[in-house]
Structure formats: structure tokens, C-alpha cells
Amino acid sequence: MTPFMPQPGQGLMRVSLLGPMGIGKTTALRSLCGELMAGSDVRNLDKGAHAKEFTTVGAEFGEIDLGSGERLQLVGSPGQDRFDFVRRWVLSASVGALLMVDVNDADAVEYASEMLTGAAELDAAPLMILLSCRTANGAQLEAFSAALMAKGHDVVPIVEADPRDRQQMLDALGVLASLLSLQSQTL
Ligand SMILES: Nc1nc2c(ncn2[C@@H]2O[C@H](COP(=O)(O)OP(=O)(O)O)[C@@H](O)[C@H]2O)c(=O)[nH]1
Ligand SMILES: [Mg+2]
Q1: Ligand 1 in contact with 96 (CB < 6 A)?
Q2: Is 27's C-beta closer than 6 angstroms to any atom of ligand 1?
Q3: Is the C-beta atom of 87 inside 6 A of ligand 1?
Q4: Is the pTM value of this prediction over 0.90?
Q5: Which of 22, 84, 89, 96 is 20 to 30 Å from 40 at the Cα level?
């Protein structure tokens, strides 16, 4: 059973951040929302998966004003597989999602493919774009895209953004917001 999480109300859209442990979800939320976020980081006890000191349990929330009256609620969901249920819940209650990857990571294609398949199975699938969060050249981005298509996925837009860089994250959200508004016009 999926817990109920209503959309946050008029003029506030919910967007979720997805990605493997250590990709920069919490960092991105901090860059975007600063103090306006409720984190849930605890000391990382799974240093085998990633060496970082703190990790996120449950979902974390932030809010951001895009100007022109548009506000986004951002939800970071945990990257570990054992939290799959939380991720499903967050995704099913989001209009859009940033799927954060390192396109040069050996597991990235498989991971992104799983996420896209999982999201597509939801009743109300959020609009997803890929966020390339580490240095990558054009050929590497194209190879990643081609590998996803070879697994049977539609073309998914890829935007490059460093989670530590607020402006780059804002630009990425801008792309998602534009796609969402296009989608709502054509429905
Ligand atoms: N080199 C590099 N490090 C990053 C980047 N984004 C985040 N980090 C660092 O990677 C670590 C894990 O980030 P975190 O936001 O906790 O990852 P999360 O597990 O996805 O929430 C932190 O020490 C960040 O400072 C990035 O774009 N490049
Ligand atoms: Mg985190």
C-alpha cells in the first residue's frame, strides 16, 4: 500500500531528486533551498557502498521560489535500494523528477534504466529528465543516451549540472518546468 501524499497545493509543484548514494541529492537540495530544507541525514553506517560520513534516511524536503509566482517543493529520496518503497512513494506524488547520474559510472545505465522503468509503471508517472552530475563530454553523454535507448527507453533529455552550483541546478529545474508546462498544454 502506498501512503497518501497529496500534491502540496495551488501554485506549488512537487519535484523529486533521484540518484544513487553519493551523487549529490542532499548537496543539490542545499544549493537550491539553503536553510529552507528539512534534512534527514544520519551518520553513514554503510561505508562499503559509499565512504561519505552522513547519509539520508527517509525523504528530505526543500522549497524554492522560481520567481513569477512559481514555487517548487523538492523532495530528495534515498539512493539505496532498500529504500525502494520510499522512492516509489515520493515519485508517485511528484509531477517531475531529476534523475541524477554520473554517465561514466559503470552502473549508471542499469540504474537509470531501472528508475525509468519503475517510474513508467506508476499510475501517474512523473516527467523525468536526466541530470549529468559529473564531468562528461558530448560523446560520453551520447553514448549514455544511446545505451538507454538500446534498452528500450524513449529519448530522455539530459541536462548537465553540478549539484554544488545553485545556478546550474536552477537552470536544470527551469528545463524541467518548461517541459512540464509544454506537457500540460498538449494534454
Ligand atoms: N566531485 C563532486 N562531488 C560532489 C558533487 N556533488 C556532491 N558532491 C559531494 O559528494 C558527497 C555526497 O553528496 P550527497 O549530496 O550527500 O549525496 P546524496 O547521497 O546523493 O545525498 C558530498 O561530500 C558532496 O560534497 C559533484 O558534482 N562533484
Ligand atoms: Mg543524501
Answers
A1: no
A2: yes
A3: no
A4: no
A5: 96
Pairwise CA distance, residues 102 & 140, whole Å: 10
CATH of the domain spanning 14-186: 3.40.50.300
Domain residue spans of the chain: 14-186
Burial class (CB in 10 A: 0-12, 13-18, 19+), 18: buried
CA of 22 to the centre of ligand 2 (A): 7
Say which residue the cell 522503468 belongs to. Answer: 117
- Which ligand is in closest contact with the Cα of 39? 2
Mean pLDDT of 55-67: 79
The beta-carbon contacts of 47-52 under 8 Å, at least 24 apart in sequence, are 49/21, 49/80, 50/21, 50/22, 52/21, 52/22
Ligand 1 midpoint to CA 133 (Å): 9
Looking at residue 1, its pLDDT comes to 46
Instruction: Look at ligand 1, atom 12, and give the residue with the nearest C-alpha.
Output: 22
